[in-house]
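Example 3.2
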Amino acid sequence: MMWQFTARASGSKKIYRRWLEAGLCAVGIVVAAFAVPVAAAAADSPRRPNIVVILGDDLGYADMGSFGSEIRTPNLDSLANKGVRFTNFYTNPTCSPTRATLLSGVDTHRNGLGNMDEWTAPNQRGAVGYEGHLNDRVATLPQLLKDAGYHTYMVGKWHLGKNPDQIPWARGFERDFSLLDGAGSYWDMTNMTSASPVSTFTEDGRYLKELPKDYYATQTYTDKLIRFIDDNRGDGKPFFAYVAHQAPHDPFHLPRDWRSRYAGEYEKGWDAVRKERLKRQIELGIMPAGTKLAERMWFVPDPIVLAPEKRALLAKKMELYAGMVENLDHHIGRLVDHLKAIGEYDNTIFIVFGDNGAEGTDLSEVIAGTPGTRDALHFATKWPNNKPDAWGDPGSYVGYGPMWAQVSMTPFSQYKGWVAEGGIRNALVVSGPIVKRPAGSINHAVMHVADIMPTLLEVAEAQYPGKTAAGQALPPLMGKSWGPVLAGKAESPRTAQDYLGWEVFGNRAVRQGDWKIRWQYKPFGKAEWELFNLASDPAERINLAGAKPEKLRQMQALWNNYVKANNVIVPSRSPFETLEHHLPPRVPDDEGYPPLIYKQQFDPPKDMMADPKQ
């Protein structure tokens, strides 16, 4: 289904030119390159930039070198060093809600992803905003940019609907090579469940019968995008490219020559790596001096107590993940190098970010962990290649678990699926010719994925419609333009009164200024509201709900406003509803406790040693 909109001006050429003169920087894993518009008003009009948004699937906050990682990411770091890093950027706790907000600029409870399609609760079925796909009540960023004279390209994971009127081609992308599912093999079309055993792909609006020869997801997506760009070079039109990489989402599949590049690096254990990453974050200025790590998850052991073989096996999982991230960086570098080769790099804005927190849940266990079920049989037959030496091959399935997910989200608490900072805060890099902030600088303002749509519409001199051609009113954009911040004219797009809200799977949160409240299912939460000051406690270690009841009431009032404004239906069922009964009781993480497991062998003084008396 193709959209036509009754337009309402949102930006203006004056606004765009003002930013261009000041310089505007790209955001998230978005690579924005801008070319000459077809209908340039005059020969001396500034060239509109191309726009490339690069999304890393489950990429952690601390996984890039420029955000404290030991993983080698020279291409992403180069973008960060030439642009700006943002340390307080928020997405949604899971992937499809983030993607829906990115492409619509509208809260997830209004755009169709009020819950993930895979987990729609009984009381949400049939409700507007909970269709499980990007609904027809919102305008999309690619469609609006296409209407404004842009080429629109997409490669990678879609996860926003599979029917012909829901696929990328129907929502504004003129060229695409897309995985419609939420996950799957990097080597072939093997999918995750017995009910849906084959992954669905589209290319240029047609469903694929098979994949190209020598298919490997990260490489093929990059190859396809480069081809799309080249096919339309020279026609004078700018392009918008949405690069929604599958990597580094599990299963950790990668070519053999990428699997051993971090051999031995992680046998020191997750606690040591987290401490090293936080130290670098403080040195870089990502986190303030004095920042503490979030508590290690209470059900995750101290690695020092594990047998060497077990530590090595768990370390190998992280080695594979690090290889995935470095391989992703390599292919991003191929795209950047190509833009340089064709003369477009200097007119390109890059926006780079991850779609949610790192994945700490074992999806294979969630899907196929019950013996005797059809999904257990599906995994046994379709994902059987699980000896450690075969990890990374077709038919293998490996993730890295909660211990390494916490490393990826250093220094924050928890990970994907939860509304603790480790589930919703992401690293953001914006780089490009219109950034006027100092190269390599860092900004700590609160930003949100919904901000990208109004920012890019203004940059592209595009328009946001008030209603469809049929007269249906469209919801207002919820985000704030980053234009003044990127131009160096402001430090934040938000006022002290602005707030952000979240709800997924029944977990919920609000942030206003330095303050945050969150409600989470037990045992990750308390099944009651908790209050944190993120300025002094970014790791959410100190619950201030009891000490500051008035602040808690003020924040709860904001939550109630968010619910009313965004059609929030708290689900009657949740994937976490029985989690408390499957994990050990929650206890504090006190370093060195119990002393029993850390006590070393006692060695008496040698001069007091003696043989036994007869």
